[in-house]
Amino acid sequence: MRTVRSLVTRLLDGRRPADPDVRLDDIAFAAGLHLYALELRPDGTYRTLVSTELRAMFVGDSPDGLEDDVWYDDHIHPDDRARYDALFDADAVRSGGQFELSYRLVRDDGRVFEVVERARARRLPDGRVLLEGSVADVTEERAARARAAEVEERLQRLMEAVEEVVYTAEIDADGNPQMVFLGPGSHKLIGGALPFEEVWPTFRARTDPDDWAERDQYFTNIRSGRHASRVYRLHGLDGVTRWIWARAYPRPRGDGEPLTFDGVLSDISERHQVAEELRVARDEAQRRSRVDALTEVFNRAHFVEELTHELDRAAREGETPAVLMLDLDYFKRVNDTFLHAGGDIVLREVARRIAGAVRGYDTVARWGGEEFVVLLPTVRDDESLRRIAEHVRLAISVEPIPFGDDELAVTASAGAARAGIGRFTAESLVDAADRALYSAKRRGRDRLRLFGELTESDFLMEEPDAIRIAEAMSRSASVREGVSDLHCARVADLSARVAEHLSLGATAVLRCRLGGWLHDLGKVAIPDRILSKAGPLNDDEWAVMRTHAALGGEIVGRIPGLADAGPAVRHHHERYDGGGYPDGLLGDEIPIEARIVGAVDTWSAMTEERVYRTGLAREEALVELERSAGTQLDPDVVAALKAVLAAFPTPR
Length: 652
Known about the structure:
Elements lengths: L3 H7 L13 H8 L1 E8 L5 E6 L3 H5 L10 H6 L5 H7 L2 H5 L2 E10 L5 E12 L5 E9 L1 H23 L2 E8 L5 E6 L3 H5 L5 H10 L6 H12 L4 E8 L5 E10 L8 E9 L1 H22 L9 H18 L4 E7 L2 H27 L5 E6 L2 E6 L5 H16 L3 E3 L2 E3 L3 E7 L7 H17 L5 E3 L5 H7 L2 H17 L4 H16 L4 H13 L9 H4 L7 H7 L1 H11 L8 H5 L21 H16 L10 H11 L6 H13 L5
Helix pairs in contact: 7-11, 13-14, 17-19, 18-19, 18-24, 18-26, 19-24, 24-25, 25-26
């Protein structure tokens, strides 16, 4: 096991997460990030919790078998290594806090690029430190900002060095300005030398007509004795159009004196051009941060931001947005046959076809790899969604993609979902569309599936192995207890529905489903005389029975793929007022998954028939559920459970 010193000076671990269902590499690759989470132990050792496998993206295709420290030893720029070591000093990390460092990496091919590494250290009560971090490639972004800064510096120099023409004018009795003094340099502005008396009329006559309204307001301000300023275009005698910045400063005047003002004229054409270049450079920097460099459609980060804003707007205005996800069929064959350069050609053309098929107000983005996603702001019903989504999907395969002297036929599978109950966050709506997409792929590809069309068999087919393991363990525990496994199945299903209603996201929903299946697993260690007792338990027997929550949490916490559900199992008998067991947690100290499983388990226990009592009728149980809100149960969870029960009524 490596030492902490080795850890904090190298940081990165190249192993994949233990859970095969976690698609962390895909998520990180799409966002251009390397993610890691490490546990630093008091004895100086550490353990990798999560690490993406993106070495090739950052440092090149290093040979297999190299140590994880290859990141540090071979690729951190020599000039940046001291700063890197200093920031991740072991004492600083162990004291807790947030860290950020920019440094350069050198790829195997010699290319140097910049990354930003951000890390957060959290000290745990038992002396361990949790270190979480990310590494992002910021080369293009920094380059765009550097270009913008260079243009801005040029603009500043020009503003300081610009030549100016000064003059003095009077307003005559008819209210018209007449020039009485003109300094040198006017020929540079007008594009030729003119007699004094012709300069003013020529300036007025050659001002661009589109700028006359500003000119009239300019002189209105002067006649009122106020400082005036304007920018206008002047078409010179030499055929050159220049941008002129005019400023006027009226003088105080006595009774009977004409209004006199001093003026300054500046040629700001180059400054205006540089300002325009600056605007373009800034727009380009902004665009690069939001656009996928390969396909020129938006990237994942921008899409999630737009989807979140659209869902907020739709919730206020009562509209229903939708998400369409598209995945190119058998794309690996394209890369294997035509290499990645050929795959890039296909991706660019597919992005162009999708963008050409959507409505003007829809948003197209590359989700990652060969996946694209479309935000459809307003969709009336599933039939409209099907029509729009199928039109976009078929646009991809309407004709083969030209490929040198050959052609390549490309098809796509698609999944789409409209916002609705439990699907009014960006994460939940994208998850629903993704589930519909994978249903289409399982059914043979080259087709569209809507989330609203999915059946129970679709959901069973997509269940991860963790659910199947949890079901098997729960059934074994039920046989040991001598009861039906329907109770755990019911708690698992209702817990997942409540989590969806609370918009907790797919990961939390899975933890609730697992916790529902496994919440009674610890009863396998309870003696038969207590577990199978027909009547009520005495105090000593209850003391033994209460150990099942902690035992179950310990068992689950040791099983890969199920460990995340351990807190839900351990704490599902905690009370919201702090009077529960095994740890006496209070309110929000109780993990949300445990609060949900605990509320659903309470509901099921009240309504199910037991050997020693009859279950409550539905309405009686609802009254008891409401009475427990704020004492035994979380009020928000109770409200969500009642809403789910109203939408999905149960027999009792």
